[in-house]
């Protein structure tokens, strides 16, 4: 029921054969070098209680099939290269207790996140003896427009984890416009770049 392969320097994509492990409750692939997208067949593993994919190199969007995992309590996807919209299905996952999406490249989040429990969105808790840990962390992404109103007061929206020291710290969204000029050798005047 448990597959812990964390800290093993695994490479490549998640093998499709894992989709046959319908009895699986715990999938932990933390701190490897796994690549590719999170496969859509992950939604067929309906007995999963936790998915821990922190500190890999996953790309693409979270598959909408994640919403089929009605027993899921932990969805920990920090420190990858995931992008696009955080899917609306996450707002309907009634058993979700920990949702870590920080340090990725997400650009939007559905208003459905506001359907989640207040404990998930606003509180901290004891996580395996480490306290306080944010139930929800989404800092250091690119979510700058159309932010759901429920996240206006969610501290975790701009928090991120350092998983070597097991601490959370302030990591705002990346919303600043990149500089027009190369600031080391140019200066901007009237919307144009001039060599120094």
Keywords, please?
mainly beta, six-stranded parallel sheet, 1 helix, 17 strands, 30% strand
Order of helices and strands: EEEEEEEEEEHEEEEEEE
Query: What is the first-to-last residue Cα distance?
Result: 63 Å
**SS field, number of helical segments:** 1
Which class best fits the helix and strand makeup?
Answer: mainly beta
Strand content: 25-35%
The largest sheet is: 6 strands, parallel
- Are there runs of 5+ residues with pLDDT below 50, and where? none
> For the residues shown, what is the average pLDDT?
91
Summarize the structure.
This protein has one helix and 17 strands.
3D architecture notes:
This protein has 196 residues and is mainly beta. The protein is 3% helix and 30% strand. The chain is built from one helix and 17 strands. The strands form six sheets. It has a six-stranded parallel sheet with strand order 1-3-5-7-9-13. A hairpin with a 4-residue loop joins β14 and β15. The longest helix is centred in the middle third of the chain and has 5 residues.
Which helices and strands appear, and what pairs or packs with what?
Layout: E1 2-4, E2 11-12, E3 26-28, E4 33-34, E5 50-52, E6 59-60, E7 74-76, E8 81-86, E9 98-100, E10 105-109, H1 118-122, E11 124-127, E12 130-134, E13 136-137, E14 159-162, E15 167-170, E16 186-189, E17 192-195
């Amino acid at each position: 029921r448990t597959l812990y392969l964390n800290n093993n320097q695994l490479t490549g994509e998640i093998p499709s054969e894992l989709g046959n492990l319908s009895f699986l409750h715990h999938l932990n692939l933390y701190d490897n070098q796994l690549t590719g997208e999170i496969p859509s067949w992950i939604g067929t593993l309906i007995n999963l209680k936790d998915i821990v994919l922190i500190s890999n190199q996953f790309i693409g969007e979270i598959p909408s099939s994640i919403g089929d995992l009605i027993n899921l309590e932990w969805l920990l996807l920090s420190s990858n290269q995931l992008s696009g919209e955080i899917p609306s299905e996450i707002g309907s996952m009634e058993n979700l207790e920990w949702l870590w999406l920080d340090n990725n490249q997400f650009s939007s989040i559905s208003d459905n996140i506001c359907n989640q429990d207040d404990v998930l969105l606003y509180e901290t808790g004891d996580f395996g003896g480490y306290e306080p840990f944010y139930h929800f962390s989404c800092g250091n992404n690119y979510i700058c427009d159309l932010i759901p109103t429920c996240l206006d007061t969610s501290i975790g929206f701009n928090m991120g984890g350092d998983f070597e020291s097991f601490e959370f710290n302030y990591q705002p969204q990346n919303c600043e416009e990149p500089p027009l000029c190369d600031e080391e050798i140019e200066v901007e005047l009237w919307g144009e770049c001039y060599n120094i």
